[in-house]
Amino acid sequence: SVKKGDVIAISQYLFTGSEATTVSLE
């Protein structure tokens, strides 16, 4: 089962991960 807190943590992790990837690609 996935808790609401887990969804937020995962979405934040994915968001920051994509942000870091975008920065490194530039």
From TrEMBL:
Organism superkingdom: Eukaryota
Protein name: Pyruvate kinase barrel domain-containing protein
Organism: Nymphaea colorata (pocket water lily)
